[in-house]
Design goal:
296 residues; alpha/beta; TIM Barrel; two-stranded antiparallel sheet; 12 helices; Xyl_isomerase-like_sf; Xylose isomerase-like TIM barrel protein; Xyl_isomerase-like_TIM-brl
Length: 296
């Protein structure tokens, strides 16, 4: 099958645009190119310039493409809705101008659910009123994206309110295929207690985009037991280079072939941005592993 392999700024620990420890965005582009990737995601809103000419020039110089943008927000918070939708409009206009066609939509990590990441049986579910707000917000994000010829894809994410299988199923039952697709992340699926390969096959009819991530199982068991929260788990090294963790990439590759998935696969490996000096060797190892398997 034909795949294009990208990475994302979270590999450098970039989770918000205002973290003073973030590397410069041009440094991220430089190392992405050096590691042999074809493209990358924009990262959190505002990390890269929101000016299409600036981004396009930098991409041209580094021989890269942007494969997707991201809305990473508290989707069930009605007071944040207007701001989220305004960000969506700005971001989709940028994506359209630079030639990208995916918007990854994530209910962001929150203090309540973060400590229950990976604990499906114990994690409190969102109450119905706030769930309805979240569905309405996603529906409006989708409509805005569609106006710019951008496909909205919902990403189940550890520490947010769309994480576990029942939440994914509930969301898909309420939002049509025309409204949203899925971005499935092998690492977040594993973190949530789901089998990544089986889930990719189970949701193949809604799958539009794939993230690859790998998980250090020993660290995962430790952080779940201690409930340190998702971000501390990332700082503690719960994510590792592709092929060095617990995710069965033989099975993942077989399923992607069976379902006929083509297009972008983006690798991610969250960490503390203060440890971003380790990013380049790690993403090189991930890229080498995928190249040996015939990806990209």
């Amino acid at each position: 099958m034909s795949y294009l392999i990208a990475c994302a700024p979270c590999c450098w620990g970039v989770e918000s645009a205002d973290n003073p420890h973030n590397p410069d965005w041009m440094h991220v582009l430089h190392e992405t190119n050096e590691a042999g990737f074809a493209g990358l995601e924009l990262g959190p809103y505002g990390f890269m310039p929101l000016d299409a000419d600036s981004v396009s020039t930098a991409l041209f110089l580094k021989q890269l493409e942007i494969c997707a943008g991201t809305i990473f927000e508290p989707l069930s918070d009605i007071d944040s809705q207007i701001n989220i939708l305004n960000k969506t409009k700005t971001l989709c206009a940028l994506l359209q101008k630079i030639g990208a066609d995916k918007l990854v939509v994530i209910d962001c990590v929150n203090d309540v659910r973060s400590q229950f990441a990976g604990l499906s049986d114990l994690a409190p579910r969102l109450e119905n009123g706030k769930w309805s707000v979240m569905m309405n917000t996603i529906r409006q994000i989708s409509a805005i994206a569609k106006a710019f010829d951008i496909r909205a894809v919902v990403h189940p994410h550890a520490g947010g309110y769309i994480e576990y299988e029942d939440e994914v199923d509930r969301m898909l039952a309420e939002l049509t295929h025309d409204e949203v697709g899925l971005c499935l992340d092998t690492g977040h699926l594993y973190y949530a207690g789901m089998d990544p390969a089986k889930s990719l096959k189970q949701y193949a009819n809604r799958l539009d985009y794939v993230h690859f991530k790998d998980v250090n199982d020993a660290v995962l068991r430790s952080v779940i037991e201690s409930r340190v929260g998702f971000w501390q788990a990332c700082a503690d090294g719960v994510m590792c280079p592709i092929g060095e963790g617990a995710v069965d990439y033989d099975a993942v590759q077989q399923v992607l072939t069976e379902i006929g998935y083509t297009g972008w696969i983006t690798i991610e490996q969250e960490r503390d941005p203060r440890n971003s000096s380790t990013t380049l060797p790690d993403i090189k190892r991930s890229r080498k592993y995928l190249a040996k398997r015939g990806f990209g």
